[in-house]
Design goal:
CATH topology of the domain at 3-122 and 136-166 and 220-228: Rossmann fold
CATH superfamily of the domain at 3-122 and 136-166 and 220-228: Vaccinia Virus protein VP39
Bound molecules: S-adenosylmethionine
Structural class: alpha/beta
Largest sheet: 9 strands, mixed
Strand content: 25-35%
Shape: globular
Number of strands: 9
Helix content: 25-40%
Length: about 230
């Protein structure tokens, strides 16, 4: 049985981010950037999507974090400028042929003794069942695990692996739609075309959430800590 935990709890346990220079690759709306900054890390949030980066900046109320446009496979950062590079649910979004490059980029920007934290959702669980109705990520998630398996070629040795389960809480089917579409706007059309079966799956899977109108779905995750060799 996997432990129930949040992404931040596992990240904190494996990387001890306080007082360190942390890069969040694919920071989305910036939740993790702000949480890490609040813990005392100096954080750079990197996003390939202008829309996501604008959301992250708008959500930030002066945390002191910096936000930069850029991709995982071409980080807009100097060599040896970070202590921790995080890929939180991001590596499988990097084009398959560029995943090795993204890990090599992470190694390039790390200082001696630095670490890469790659957390990837596994291809199982209630949230996976729901999301695969909109976009089946079975193949790309497998490719991300394979790239992590080759990380030593980029000078990153495997230091630790933790599997855990996160609880994803969404406010109704609309909350589910906006979470999925925020990652990729082209999902909106697929979601709307599939709305009836998604609504049925939404009721069948998951549990009532702690807040009125919300539902919680389990998603198993694997976090792997890679150390600069
Ligand atoms: C599933 S979301 C995860 C967002 C956030 N890390 C989180 O855990 O909530 C994946 C994010 O990766 C971004 N992304 C996609 N391709 C990328 C790339 N090549 N380099 C960096 N970020 C990328 C997307 O824009 C999106 O914000």
């Amino acid at each position: 049985m996997r432990e129930q935990a949040t992404d931040l709890e596992i990240l904190q346990r494996l990387t001890r981010p306080a007082g360190r220079d942390v890069v969040d690759v694919g920071c989305g709306g910036g939740d993790l950037v702000r949480a890490l900054t609040a813990l005392g890390a100096r954080v750079s949030g990197i996003e390939v999507s202008e829309g996501q980066l604008a959301r992250a900046r708008a959500n930030d109320d002066g945390s002191g974090a910096r936000y930069l446009i850029g991709s995982g496979q071409a980080l807009p950062l100097d060599d040896a400028s970070a202590d921790v590079v995080v890929f939180m649910r991001t590596l499988h979004h990097v084009p398959v042929g560029e995943m090795d490059r993204a890990l090599a980029e992470a190694r390039r920007v790390l200082r001696a003794g630095g670490v890469v934290h790659v957390a990837e959702p596994l291809t199982e669980g209630e949230w996976f069942e729901l999301t695969r109705m909109v976009e089946d990520e079975l193949e790309v998630r497998g490719e991300a695990q394979a790239a992590i398996g080759r990380a030593l070629r980029a000078g990153l040795g495997r230091a630790d692996t933790v599997e855990y389960e996160v609880a994803i809480e969404v406010a109704g089917v609309e909350g589910c739609r906006s979470r999925m579409v925020s990652v990729d706007p082209t999902r909106a059309g697929v979601f709307d075309a599939q709305r009836a079966p998604i609504e049925a799956a939404f009721e069948r899977l998951g549990q009532p959430g702690p807040r009125p109108g919300t539902r919680v779905f389990g998603q198993p995750m694997r976090a792997q800590l890679l150390r600069a060799e």
